[in-house]
Amino acid sequence: MKSVFITFDQAHYVQIIETLDKLSCRGYSYFEQVRGRGSKTGEPHYGSHAWPSMCSAIITMVDDAKVEPLLKRLRQMDEEAPQLGLRAFVWTIEQSI
After folding, report:
1. pTM for the complete prediction?
2. Across the chain, what does the average pLDDT equal?
């Protein structure tokens, strides 16, 4: 099992939820307002007067076989609108209850 942590501009929300549903990634936690700045490109998301946009985050636990299809679709979304910012990080889950 893997954990996928996705950070994204709020404009991506509907597409990401639809992607999770299509891939049967049923369990996730959604963080509606997250502030931050990407390490590569894109605008800061601070929710301030100067930088008003906000980002969100989702963490989901998925079977290993679902990781690549999920990352492929997220990569496509990021390439279609690179200025918005979308990142995903994957790590192994050793145990859960």
Report:
1. 0.88
2. 90
